[in-house]
Amino acid sequence: MKLSIFFNPFQKINYNLILCILIIAVSACEKKDSNFPVNSPDGKISVEINNENGSITYALFKNGEALINTSKISILPEVHAQINSASLNSKNEIWQPVWGQFSEINNHYNELVLDVKLEEANAKLYVRVFNKGIGFRYKIEGYKEGTEANFYCEYNLDSTDALYAPAGEKEPLGPMLINELVTIKKQPKLRMPIVVEKSEKSHLSLLESDLYTAPEFGVIKFNFDQDKKRLVSTNKRKLTGKKITTPWRVILVDENIGGLVTNTVPLNLATPCEIEAVSWIKPGKTLWDWRVHGYKTADGFTYGINTGSYIRFIDFAAEKNIEYFLIDANWFTKVIKGHFEITDALDLEKVSNYAKENGVKLILYYDRHKGDYGDEDLFSYFKSLGMSGIKYGFMGNNVSFTSNAIQESAKNNLLVDFHDSPVPFTGIERTFPNAITREYCHAQQDSRRAFTPESFIKMALINAIQGPLDMNNGNFDLIGINRGDRQKGPKKPNSYFSTVVSETARTLIIFSGLVCLPDAPEAYNKKSDLFEFIQKMPVGKWDESMVLNSKMGAYISTARRYKEEWFIGSVTNKEGRTLDIDLDFLKEDKTYVVTYYEDTAKTHGMKKPEAYKTRTGKVKKGDIIKAVMAPGGGHCMWIKPE
To answer: PROSITE patterns of this UniProt entry (predicted)?
Structure first.
């Protein structure tokens, strides 16, 4: 066995790396079928690769305790695999995303690279270990044209581990115990990201990253193999060309379930930014017309798909410094290649010019169900209309099609917001930061159903792991919506359980490059003191983000920093509760002014959803704030230096 080791004499010595090298060297001398360990930079996470009887397996440990037991990993099914050599390397660098939950990200890992002989083919298996997770990737060459590859990975979990998974426009699945999945006949459909709850002190998430590198593999597929009694993931494709690189198979590790949402491992594994000039890519907030149709104002105006309605939206956006206005479906009645037939009530040119004069950028929806304009011309056409972005509906689960749409959008300086069960393209916002958000969730009132406080919290802790979400939180006219005043309100009256403070907190908790606000300008103006929290929130420009409190389906508290200011949002399920918000992250010897946005003693998510209060105070590092929340309620804080 050949062992290649490379050191940079100017780097700090990594003793974990040296230990791994010695173990590999000793193992290599003892036998050909060897054990190959590699540790995280802090030494807490370790992966052991074994090569026995023509198979490669891995096991994942934290502080010596098994998180995933011995599990098979392969790229060519039923082919004898022999590891012939191994090398170790390490990297520690800081990079800056164009926008995101952090202004700087530390890419720090140890990597084991294994040369694998697969009969006539040759492969490299990359095992990259971070302090908060791991990634596996294969590179393969020398195969026969048309060979079927399957990036196969098992997850041999304990029988008492609980799984959670997204469920499209429904509440996420879970908890599903491993020992229950072994026995049930009808297996649930499992989508990424899978969340594994091992105990209160150990949580995993199973997903992929950098699908951009190999879109032909398609989205990772999960299923539970009842014979093997373990979870399995696959990506299949026919091998063509000379060399193939797979996406990364990713396992995130955190003591707290909320930490999975701010984990940067998927971004570190993604291809770096492919756009040379990025100054035109601006995250922000957007008003949105779709949920407002039918809303009647005090002065007798009724919102709809027309020029007058859109002028009102633009005026409010300009007044409140909201960057975008999003025009949704039915602005056109018919589409054929090369032509959109615009509805008679809308003068799109007038609206576009008015928005430009007032410093508001427009995003326009395109629904593929209404006709095929032709993607080769679609994005240049939207650019010619003066649009800053496209909300692309009904893309389908075609990875190559979606990847091409992202790249064509970028060529035409367009942001792209994918809707209606899109591809969960984890990490793509690093590679193409114009991919600003996606509706990989049950967005508020999808299919005219109102989701529950519990399902919101589940999506915030499951769906959000794969990247930015467009969930459409932030309704303020809850009484009117529940009464049925809107054309697009819930089909069942009084089914929307929330409070206005919870709605406000949700706009911060769900990370996105484009926070879509679904209510009417007049609804926000009536509660302008509460809307202040949303108005001041610098979307996508965060320097630091953290989840302070989290429990699946019960509650979540998120804090985000922009320069010296902190924005904190908390929500609870249908049970009222009080959470301790520890301000230990503030700077020493500094006094801060805080504005509280709170439920009142009378607030209730169904009975009295619009009751709230605001107040101000002063806080310092180490203070613990009691966030008192009504059933279905929330709590917000805006903290800035005195």
So the answer is: PROKAR_LIPOPROTEIN
Residue 193, preceding bond cis, omega within 30 degrees?
yes
Has residue 8 got a pLDDT over 80?
no
Task: Read off the tokens for 217.
Answer: 């593999």
DSSP code for 97: -
Across 357-374, b (16+ Cβ under 10 Å) vs e yields eeebbbbbbbbbebbebe
Question: Residue written as tokens 């990490």?
Answer: 427
pLDDT tens track for 263-309: 999 999 999 999 999 999 999 999 999 999 999 999 999 999 999 99
Contacts of 37 (CB under 8 A, 6+ apart): 20, 23, 24, 46, 47, 48, 49
The topology (CATH level 3) of 2-157+208-242 is Beta-galactosidase; Chain A, domain 5 (2.70.98)
Residue 276: in which H helix or E strand, if any? none
Q: Could you tell me the CATH superfamily of domain 273-440?
A: Aldolase class I (3.20.20.70)
Beta bridge partners of 598: 613, 635
Query: Within the chain, how many helices (H) and strands (E) appear?
Result: 13, 37
Q: Which of 270-274, 312-316, 418-422, 580-584 comes out lowest in average pLDDT?
A: 418-422
Round to whole Å and give the CA distance between 537 and 570. Answer: 15
Instruction: Give the residue extent of every domain in the chain.
Output: 2-157+208-242, 273-440
pLDDT at 270: 98
pLDDT digits (tens, 9 = 90+) for 356-383: 999 999 999 998 777 667 678 899 999 9
Q: Nearest-CA neighbor of 432 among 96, 95, 97?
A: 97
Q: What is the DSSP string of 430-444?
A: HH-TTEEEE--S--T
Task: Reply yes or no on whether the pLDDT at 23 is more than 50.
Answer: no
pLDDT at residue 371, rounded to an integer: 66
Token pair in block for residue 450: 């109102």
Q: At what angle do helices 500-509 and 528-536 cross, to 10 degrees?
A: 0
Cα 237 to Cα 69, 182, 220, 506, distances in angstroms: 27, 28, 12, 39
